[in-house]
Design a protein that fits this description.
globular; about 50% strand
Length: about 120
């Protein structure tokens, strides 16, 4: 696991990180992140995702990064798309949370598409 704190004026306001996969998937990583709601819509996560994606591919030699997004988290999907990730598929009713089932959207970016 590789994790980074997102800092704003000395305060931790979020986190971003990725898990490199193993064996035949060793050049792929799953990325995840969160940001305090008071900082949503300010471009903070777009900037963090862009930087970490560049780092993971340039410094660690990753070829593919992907993210899973629950269907009601439209903001997360928009952040991924702004950073060049493409929607690769939808796993229908793949997430069970609370008392409901939700679709899971899978986004991916390969090195040749890096902006």
């Amino acid at each position: 696991d590789t994790r980074f704190v997102i800092d704003h004026e000395g305060e931790a306001i979020g986190e971003i990180g990725f898990v490199t996969q193993v064996d035949v998937h060793r050049f792929t990583a799953e990325i995840g992140y969160w940001l305090s709601e008071s900082h949503w819509g300010k471009g903070v996560m777009t900037q963090a995702l862009s930087r970490i994606t560049q780092y993971a591919m340039d410094e660690l030699g990753l070829v593919r990064i992907y993210a899973d997004v629950v269907d009601y988290n439209k903001g997360s999907g928009k952040v991924l798309e702004k950073c060049g990730f493409q929607l690769e598929g939808i796993l229908r009713k793949h997430i069970f949370k609370g008392e409901d089932y939700f679709d899971q959207y899978v986004y991916g970016l390969v090195r040749s598409e890096l902006q």
